[in-house]
Amino acid sequence: MTVPPAVAPLPVSLDAILAARRALAGVAVKSPMVEVAGRPLYLKCEHLQPIGAFKIRGAFTAIDRLGPAGRAGGVVTSSSGNHGQAVAWAARRFGIRSVVVMPESAPGVKVAGVRSHGGEVVFAGATRSPEQQIRAERFVAEEGLAMIPPFDHPDVIAGQGTAGLEILEQVPAVATVLVPVGGGGLLSGIATAIKALRPEVEIIGVEPAGAPKLAAALAGGRPVLLGATESVADGLLTRAVGALPWALIQQHVRRAVGVSDTEIGQAVRWLFEHQGLKVEPSGAVSVAALLAGRIESPGPVVAVLSGGNVDPDVFQRLVTG
After folding, report:
1. Hey, how many other C-beta atoms are within 10 angstroms of the C-beta on 32?
2. Lesser CB count within 10 Å: N end or C end of the chain?
3. How many helices (H) and strands (E) does the chain have?
């Protein structure tokens, strides 16, 4: 008798996401779903979370699940902005120290955001460079802080997946969901939640053309480390999809769509002029794919707007064309 090889369990389950949702009650808001007139399109407004991005879901969940002893010494992370703000916000809620290692080129609005929530900012290297992670790990080794990764962690993914539960409740007839992709935490969490309950819904990852790490992973069958990434969408410049997000993404996602910086800028402007929404470039890539005509769907589409923390000068330049 031939014994089939053991199949490793997926790192995040629907039960884990449901538990995260219970813990997030009174912390993350059930973000609004805006219906776009004249189109079978709905906008999931995660940029209206308390720190201006979806990241609050995963950061709070991960810190909460450390338990009192695990988080007593404080927490540290490496982040270009939104995750760092979320970690600082959640740490303040728990009454603990937080350190955020950011690239030297981090947008000023995101640096100020971290500090406004009580986070200590340490600068190291260029965007998504190894120096940031190395510096963050020194805080773990030398000062006993607990690491809260931006995407490659099961509790972070479970927290992000709670947005998927809300999408199904707010748009029961949804056929396609468009999700911005950085390291894959949001995409993997949403896909896990939705596919467990509505397997027929298509989940599509949208990323900058200058940072096609999901397209590379889907083509190669594994995460691929890109040589470099560049885009106005500064929150999506991760050079590779995370290992844990990939374990989920490969089960549930079959397509990645890339959008140019010009198309991203057009989406930022369209959201502001036609919907009155101030969304950062990273949060607008989902709408950019639609406006560029790259999405066909048999039914209603939900586009996730993942963040709204944009430098005022960058936003003004984009909305004025």
Report:
1. 15
2. N
3. 13, 10
Domain termination residue (choose one: 147, 181, 213): 147
When pLDDT is cut at 50, 70 and 90, the band that residue 7 belongs to is very low
Instruction: Give the C-alpha separation, 302 to 33, whole Å.
Output: 9
User: Is-catalytic flag, 195?
Assistant: no
Catalytic site includes residue 306 = yes
C-alpha angle with apex 37: 31 to 43, nearest 5 degrees?
25
- Single out the catalytic residue among 31, 44, 55, 188: 55
Q: Report pLDDT digits (tens) over 68-85.
A: 999 999 999 998 889 999
Q: Is the pLDDT of residue 126 over 90?
A: no
Both 46 and 64 in a single domain? no
Q: 7-11, 17-21, 154-158, 161-165 — which is least confidently predicted?
A: 7-11
CATH number of the domain enclosing 64: 3.40.50.1100
The runs of H, that is alpha helices, within the chain are 14-24, 55-64, 67-71, 82-94, 108-116, 130-143, 154-170, 185-197, 213-220, 243-252, 261-275, 281-291, 312-319
